[in-house]
Amino acid sequence: MKPIVCLTPNPALDVSTAVAELVDQHKMRCDPGIEQPGGGGINVARVIHRLGGDAIALYPAGGSYGERLSDLLDAERVPRQSVPITAPTRFSFIVRDRAGRRQYRFVLPGPTISDHEGTQILAQFDRLVSEGTIAVGSGSLPPGLPEDFYGRAARIATRQHARFVLDTSGAALAAALREGVYLVKPSLRELETVAGRALGSAEEAVAFSRELVARHAAEIVVVSLGADGAVLVTERTCRNHPAVQVAVGGTVGAGDSLVGGMLTAVARGWSVEDAFGYGMAAAGATLLAPGTALCDRATTDRLYASLAGSHPLDRQLCDARPKANPEASAETPGGSLES
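Request: output the structure for the sequence above.
Response:
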């Protein structure tokens, strides 16, 4: 089985801590910081590795933060390929307020990546991807990379007869969908950005997801709905899965765990529907883990066993149909995806 290639254009060294209470204008004493490798695709690779799958993390790395991030991946024995850049890799700061039981995430924009460095990242992506590969593009784009960066990666995957999976937002999401992808996992808010309108209900989200599938923008759409779980839409299938009910220890990486769990199962030959359930179990296991920790295989497998069969077809949701759009062409994958 070929490794799943997980591309992260804007990785981060995640530093998390906790304070008794967040109070402005006061010096707050923090718990010792915990360092974790971060960024969408890197978390996806880490989850796949934890669940017994085969993945390689591809990312740009610069400065001491980039070196530390690579060291942390090596400590977890996650296969990796870094592309050197001049500017230092970003770091993110996560603080848990014990009094309010809330988690606050402070995210920096990331390094400015030159055109040459961006070309080198895509060249390495091209070398790692081949026929039959599953490739993931996940996370935000750093300054300097064009909004069609993921679209270019999707084009490479198509040329190589590989399946490209996308988890990003904004203009980068819309641009890649114009190229066409295998699977896309937006949140409801991210899907609204692509639609260019509010999607006031899960039914409307399903209808627009069907529109994306009909236009060949994506073969599979998984829309995360927060506390309402997630929905899966393909040409033949519609499934809704309630949120996994667990005591939440932290929310960082739950969406990445959904993607990682689902792709681990797809790579094993599972049906898309069963893989969706396994991804939801992985997300639940990450929510259950404390702080910024990700899921583990034992908890994921246990949750999946308890949830098996609990993602039924919801006729009300799945009868939702895309609204007629006279300006859209069935031969143009983009259609109304222009933002």
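The chain has eleven helices and 13 strands.
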